[in-house]
Amino acid sequence: MILTIITPQSSVEHQIAWLELHTPNGTFTVYRGHAPTIVPLKPSSSLIFKLKTGKQQTMTIRDGVAHVTREKVEILATPTE
User: Fold this and answer.
1) What's phi and psi for 7, nearest 5 deg?
2) Is the pLDDT of residue 16 over 80?
């Protein structure tokens, strides 16, 4: 699964195994094959994801939105400074 994180400063792409998203309505984990959806992200939350290499990473965002398809996730976000 491909994760693309787009911020005003940059765009970064990762090969991931899974991604945990925090939304105003709760938290859910996205795996390859997830049902397509567009969700707002909870303000001042963290994106937690596991790379294909096995390493887990976290990125804190100020706000954002996630576009999930069966093969990729695109996140438009404002990172915290």
Assistant:
1) -120, 170
2) yes
